[in-house]
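Reply to dn_fold:

You asked what the input looked like. This is it:
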Amino acid sequence: MLDNRLYRRYNSESIQKSTSKTKGLKKMKKFAKRAAAFLLAAVLSLSLAGCYNENLTWAAKKGDTELPIGAYIYYLSVAYNEAAAKIDTETEVLKGEVEDTPAAEWITARANAYMNQYFWMQDEMTRLGLSMTDEDYAEASQTTANYWYYFGKSLEKFGIAQTSFDIAYSQYNAMYLKVFEAMYGAGGEREIPEADLLAHFTDTYMNYEYFTAPLTKKAEDGTSENMTDEEKAEVTAALDKLEQQVSDGTLTVEEAAAEYAESIDADSNYVQSVNNRDGMTAARMTSAFITSLESMKEGDIQVFEASNYMVFLHRLPIDDAVEEKLGAEDDRLTLMLELKSEEYQDYVRDSAAAGVDGVELNQEAIDHYKPSMFESTTKNGTSSTAEESSASSESSASSESSASSESSASSESSAEE
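and this is what came back:
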C-alpha cells in the first residue's frame, strides 16, 4: 500500500505548477515509475517472507550455541560418503546396508551423531579449561577459505553455506586438536610417555639427503628427449666419482650436488628431509626411492635410476633429527596423532554417543533433508571389499593438522613418479 503522504505531495506540486502542463505530465510519469518500483519491492518482500522460515535455519542448539542447518547438511554428506565407502560398487548406496542397518537410516543416525560430537567437544573444551582464541578462529577461517576455493560451489548446491562449513568442519577440527593435545600432551590425563614418542619416531622415520641428475636433454626443437646410452653412462660415471669423494670425506652431499649442478649449468636440487613411508608415499616419491632408502643402513650411499633421473641418496642417522623434530610443536603433534589418533577418535565417538545433556534437535528442519539428496554425486558404493571403510570426519582433522615432515612436496618433485 502507498503512503497517502506521497499522493498529497504530488497533488500540491501539480496545483502549484498547473500553468505548465508539460512539466506536470513529466512529474506524473516520474511519480508513476517510483510508485511502481515501490509496489514491486513490496510484492517481492512479501514473496520472500512467505518462503523464509526462521525455524528451518538451525539444526540443533545447546545453550547459546546453535548449529545452522547447513552444518547438518554437511554432516549428512560426510555420512553418505562414509556409507558409500562401506558398500560394494555393484550396490546402490541407498539400497545397501551398513553395519546391518539400512544405509539411509545409518547415514541419518551418523549425521546426528556428528552434531552430538560437536556439542560434546564444546563441553570437553570447557571441562579442560580450553577456549578458542582469535588466532584459532582466524586459522579456521583460513582453512575454510582454502577448501571453499575448490569445493565451495559444490557445497552451496546442497545448501551448505561457507559459514556453516566453517563451523561444522574448520572450527570443530580446531577444537578437536586442542582437546587432543590437552589430553595426550605433557601433563594430560592420557599423556603419551616421552619414551613412546621417541621410539615411534626412531623406529618409523628416516633421515636422508639426496640430489638428482636428469637423464633427459633438450632437443633441437626445444622439447625434452631421453639421453643416449653413452650420455647416461657419462652421468653415472660423474655420480660414481662424487660418491667416492663423499665417502672419503672430501665433499658433503650438499657440496657434491652443487658441483654436479654447476657441471651441467643448472641450479642445485639438494634436499635434506626426515619422513616415514606414509609421508614419502603421500609426497609421491617413487617406489624405487622408498625401497632403496629402507634397504640402506645409516651412513650408506646409493646411486640409482628412478624414472628419468639418477638419484644420489645418502641415509643419515635418525638420532641427529630427534631434537629438532620432537622439539617442534607441529612435528610433535604429528607423532602424537600417529600414535593415538584412532584411540582418540573412538573415545570422542563413544563419549558423545553416551549422551550430551541439553541438546535440542530441530527435527522439523532436519526432516527436510534426506540422504537421497546426495544420490546424484555417488549412486553406487565405492568399496572394493565389504570390509573397506572410509575415514571419519575426525580423521580428517588428524590429516589436516599433521605438518608434513617435508618442507614441501614440490621440493622432492624430481624424485616423484
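Residues 35 and 126 are 56 Å apart (CA to CA).
Hope that clears it up.
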